[in-house]
């Protein structure tokens, strides 16, 4: 009797889950012949690395200033290990949900969490699954669009300072107005495979800028006021926040996992996840340590601010960083735009002209991030 009740209970859970996934699939964009194409290892790796490096990387010098060399390094490694572990847990859970529901592609972030709750034996988890999905979706939306706003601010302020070196005094609003067409073009890219060239260009530009900054950091005498431990307890939360901000690609893990042609290439020992996170650490740690060792307590919130602005090489670094961050906008914008579109289509759709609606929604969201 108990076995029969258990089976009925499981069938009910699976049935509810299948209905919910059907609703989600119904609310997604109409499939086209191009949507069946998957990304390969290198394309996904470019996306993954780009998704985890950005403005936060340039603030690592200040993180080492607040926490000291040894403590910051230990916390950075700890956060890195936790991030890698959580990403593996997330992709494994997504794969289990996909196998349970027998879908062709891995579910999204919110759908993975929702269906994991629905498959639970505890009624309290099943009853809150829909709320959990919304909480996850809106948190990702706020995170990704917040990153986009930071990117736009970095591009505008850096470009303004670069123009100031050539005696062009332009206010930040005017600079932002001139950069809007480029930002809107990046925001209009609807498929990850179209964003791949931008990710490759962004990685090249950012790595070139990082190498040049490290050249400045390693040349000349080092600072004498370098600390190996923290100075004030009150500065440790800021240090931790900078470290957390430097790992900014958690919202892209499942979209990339769903797009790769073979999920084993993503989760294996030398897969996209492990190799990409090692590459991110190899950029963050040397950049932060050498930057703090060079400038000590005078290190700025962005290492580009410590470079001598009258040098042509410095201007080259700023141009590379502007280019890299601008090309990164499309990738960070992608998850938020998909969430908003699917949510609106679920409430008011299906739309007669989905492409027009999608582009219109993307432009509106882009304008919001620029305000």
TrEMBL record:
Sorted UniProt keywords: Membrane, Transmembrane, Transmembrane helix
Residue span, Amino acid transporter transmembrane domain: 40-369
Keyword Transmembrane: yes
Subcellular location: Membrane
Bilayer disposition of the protein: Multi-pass membrane protein
Membrane-traversing stretches: 39-60, 66-86, 135-154, 166-187, 194-216, 236-258, 270-293, 313-331
Entry GO CC: vacuolar membrane
Superkingdom in the source lineage: Eukaryota
MF annotations from Gene Ontology: L-amino acid transmembrane transporter activity
InterPro entries (UniProt xref): AA_transpt_TM (IPR013057)
Chief localization: membrane
Cell division as UniProt keyword: no
Protein name: Proton-coupled amino acid transporter 2
